[in-house]
């Protein structure tokens, strides 16, 4: 985990890969819980027998399930010491570039694209998050994520 001691330290990392997360395994129960929470019960996600005969050879995670892991990846890759609060501010661009078969292991590469101070005590950061599947030949998701932090030392 990368620890920043001030917003100045964060700003000095613009244009760099800052951290790589640990691997996270995507299980069928997680996929089912996501389907139940969102109402997206499409068989390619929730019917293992039918999905095994489908285009991917197994159930696959919802793209939005993959995207919903971003907060977990943020929490596990870096912290800003002294920050009172961090919030998701939005997304500029998201692409789902490859499927995530059940039992895949995913990790994220976190690159800081931009950061700017928000007065009086905040920082807005633009992160390029590249989610990789172990053994995959291309990313499963690439997202430009906006995050805000409040209250850390300048």
Task: Please provide a written account of the structure.
- With 154 residues, this protein is an alpha+beta fold.
- It has helices spanning 7-11, 28-38, 43-46, 48-52, 63-68, 70-77, and strands at 2-4, 16-20, 24-25, 78-80, 85-96, 105-118, 122-133, 141-150.
Structural key phrases:
154 residues; single chain; HotDog_dom_sf; MaoC-like_dom; alpha+beta; 25% helix; six-stranded antiparallel beta sheet; MaoC family dehydratase; 6 helices; NodN-like; two-stranded parallel ribbon
Summarize the topology.
Layout: E1 2-4, H1 7-11, E2 16-20, E3 24-25, H2 28-38, H3 43-46, H4 48-52, H5 63-68, H6 70-77, E4 78-80, E5 85-96, E6 105-118, E7 122-133, E8 141-150
Parallel strand pairs: 1-4
Antiparallel strand pairs: 2-6, 3-6, 5-8, 6-7, 7-8
Number of helices: 6
Shape: elongated
Radius of gyration in whole Å, from Cα? 17 Å
Cα end-to-end separation: 21 Å
Percent strand equals 35-45%
Average pLDDT taken over every residue: 97
Using DSSP, what is the number of strands? 8
Helix content: 25-40%
Low-confidence stretches: none
Structural class: alpha+beta
SSE string, helices as H and strands as E: EHEEHHHHHEEEEE
Largest sheet: 6 strands, antiparallel
